[in-house]
Amino acid sequence: MQQRSSSIGTVHLVGAGPGDPDLLTLRAARLIMAASLIVHDGLVDPSILAMAHPGARLISVAKSRSRHTMAQEAINALLVREALAGNDVVRLKGGDPFIFGRGGEEAEACRAAGVPVRVVPGISSALGAAAAAQVPLTHRDHASIVSFVAGQCKGLAEQDWAGLAGKGRTLVIFMGIATSAAIAEKLMADGLAPDAPVAVIENATRHGMRVLRCPLAGLPDLIQGARVKSPALIVIGDVAAEPDNTIRELALEAVK
């Protein structure tokens, strides 16, 4: 992936997975190692960025709840500008680009400017976190439906979450740590039992991974008392109930 002055470059929207570099796809690893320009999110693990060759340009566009290094419109413009200058761009995102990764917006901006786009899927943080914690999102005895929702979104209080969690269902909440109190209150107001099992998975697949459990009504106290920080996912449903000791020890051993 070298700079080309006579043609338009390609923007590769690449999923970096939940954090562990061993969980990258082969295509993602090849693109990262060959890239001359990587535009990356803050959730991409440093060990993955270290795979880039020494001459590569790395541009961080990290976002947090209270601070954005670069607004989304500016990121879109950056990708288009670099590609139109003849550069291939690896746009590296935690998880999967099209699951709460704003990959759809970036792909639209590139296509509107006539820039070719390629999408390389990654293991979604929901799937990676659940697997690392050995929390099965589906289970013949407990859940045949899975829903993914964003815990930070406009109009959260006005949304109807009734039916997203409950008997036979699993609810996975992204970006819900800062709004955990509102989430718990809303789910209970929409009919979910206060004692519904909850698992909070912090730093999934990375050093320092934690799996914490509580009933739904105790979620805000758990988040505050354990000082849970992002990246973390909230899993709600019967599958989030405490596993036996053997499974719990295996899950913890996997991240040592």
UniProtKB/TrEMBL annotation:
Its EC number is 2.1.1.107. One of its GO terms (biological process) is methylation. The keyword Transferase applies. Pathway: Porphyrin-containing compound metabolism; siroheme biosynthesis; precorrin-2 from uroporphyrinogen III: step 1/1. NCBIfam families: cobA_cysG_Cterm, PRK06136.1. Coiled coil: none annotated. PANTHER family: S-ADENOSYL-L-METHIONINE-DEPENDENT UROPORPHYRINOGEN III METHYLTRANSFERASE, CHLOROPLASTIC, SIROHEME SYNTHASE-RELATED. Residues 10-219 form the Tetrapyrrole methylase domain. Belongs to the precorrin methyltransferase family. GO terms for molecular function: uroporphyrin-III C-methyltransferase activity. InterPro entries: 4pyrrol_Mease, 4pyrrol_Methylase_sf, 4pyrrole_Mease_sub1, 4pyrrole_Mease_sub2, CobA/CysG_C, Siro_Cobalamin_biosynth, Uropor_MeTrfase_CS. Keywords: Methyltransferase, Porphyrin biosynthesis, S-adenosyl-L-methionine, Transferase. Gene3D superfamilies: Cobalt-precorrin-4 Transmethylase, Domain 1 (3.40.1010.10), Methyltransferase, Cobalt-precorrin-4 Transmethylase, Domain 2 (3.30.950.10). It comes from the Bacteria. This is uroporphyrinogen-III C-methyltransferase. The keyword Transferase applies.
